[in-house]
Every structure is written in C-alpha cells, then in structure tokens.
Amino acid sequence: MIPGFLVYFLVGSLLIDVHGVPVEVVVDNPANLVCKEENESNEQVLWYKTKPEKLLSTSLNVLGPYKNRMHVKSPYPGEWVLVIKRVEVTDAGGYICKVSGSVMAEIDLVVQTPPTIHQTNDMTFNEGDTGIVWCNATGFPTPNIRWYSKPPHQEDGIGHYTGAEGNKLVLHNITRYYDNIYGCEATNAAGNVFAETRIHVNFGPEVDILGENVTAVIGEEVTLHCVIAAYPMDGVGEWAFQNRSEPIEYSWKYNVVPDPELKTDFNTLIVSLTIRFGALGNQDYGQYVCRTKNFSRGYSDKVVVIQSN
C-alpha cells in the first residue's frame, strides 16, 4: 500500500485543472482513458481525477471506492488504460496519469447526455394574440432545436419544418389557422428527442351552407347541410324557418342530425336538415336559417332557400 504522506505529495503536488486531450463519451457507455510511457518502465503508475482531487489507482490496483466502476489494464508494455465501465455525469473532468513522477497523459473526459424535453401542456390563445411556445430541452452538448407543425388529425410523422429554430417558437398575429400540433425536435451528439404541444385558438362561431339554394319538386326528399366552425365548440346548431324563433325538431317529416365527428380535430360541427321523401309540400318552400345557439364567443347564422322547379 502506498504510504499516506506519499499519496498526499503525489496528488497534492498536481492539484491543478486539466486541459488535456478531450475524450467524448455518451453517458452510461464505457470510457477508455489511455496512458503511454515510451520507455516501458515498470515504475508505479498513478491515475487520479482533478476537481475534486481523487487518487483512483496505483498501478493496476483501483482504490476501494472505485473498484465497482473502474479497472486498470495494461494491454501492451508501457500502456495503461483506465476503464470506466459505465460513465456517469459526475465522471466528467480532468484525469492525469503519472509514471515515475512524470505526467504521461492529461485527459479531459467530456460526458455527453442525450436531450431531455420537459413537456409543455396544451396552450390556448385568442385570435390576434402573439403566442410563445417553449421547448425546454436539456442535454450536453446543448441541443439544437427545430420546430415542426402538423394538422391535429394527423397521427403519424412529425409534420413539416416551420423554419424556426431555438428554444421558443413565436407565433405572431394568431388566427384560427394556427390551431395545430407543434413539435420540437432537440438534437445533440448523444441523441435526439421529439415532443408535441397542441395549440388551440379561440374564435367566434361562423356558419356556412354547403351548396347553393335548392330547387325541388313536391314530394322530393331534400337535405340541407350547415357547417359551424368555432372554438370552443360549446354551443349547438339548429335549423329554423326564417323569421321563426322555434327550431325545427326531429319528427316524421324532418330529420335533424348533428354530426360531432369533426369537433375535436377541426373545430367544426355539421348539422343536416332533411325533409323526408314524400313530405315536401307547397308550404315548405321558402327560406331556412341555420343558426348557432349558446356559443360563448358570439352568434352566427346563414340562410338557404328551397324553391320550386
């Protein structure tokens, strides 16, 4: 065993920061730090780490606290390799190999860590806002970040590259068409990771009619389609005769069908009104209105005409 005073002298005399040959290793992988001595002497070899100063081994013997994670091997005469079996972040820093009182190797172990993204929750903005979406990514080296976007109904792929880079995405003068999934990809030498955030945009309801005014003959089945776009989709759509307050209800004559399938991904609701086959009479010609009800952000309607041939 090396005497305590000698350990203090050998280590304490070199309590300096090491700026040596860089060795880059991804965390959790093995590292091999190589020390060579041209004269191939059989003198004692010391490996130690600086900041904080730790004596790691004497010759081929790793000291007690480090035996489980490190060992020293000599594959060739005059060559000693300090092997770190599974590198940890705290292993980063300077290492010195000293043979017969002379420094034979100065190594700077750089421990690379893959990126990690701290997930951002879904966000909601109003039309006209300027919004900022953050990609809080950590890792070493510092990750490069690129932004992508895709429609909310698209399940596969990362979407198209927006041209934006950096840890924040700034959305200026937001409109409803910014309602998308935004993804950030963080990449460094140790790996890459991808995370997504859904952006919702508040806007008042808008009503549109599918198709032009309808021409029909007595007894013919007629179907009217109304499209309502809004966010939040917190109301309902209904059909009524123009200038009448009461809505048209489901009955033997009318079939009123709201289709909610597009609500989640497209902020859209389709409400259809069908006058069943054989039920259309002279009294049914005229104006029909599709209108919104109980929407928190406003009201909208649109008129369509059923006319005789």
UniProtKB/TrEMBL annotation:
Database matches in SMART domains: IG, IGc2
Protein name, per record: Ig-like domain-containing protein
Domain Ig-like: start-end pairs: 3-108, 115-200, 205-306
Signal sequence interval, chain numbering: 1-20
InterPro entries per UniProt: Ig-like_dom, Ig-like_dom_sf, Ig-like_fold, Ig_sub, Ig_sub2, Immunoglobulin_dom
Origin: domain of life: Eukaryota
Key words, A-Z: Immunoglobulin domain, Signal
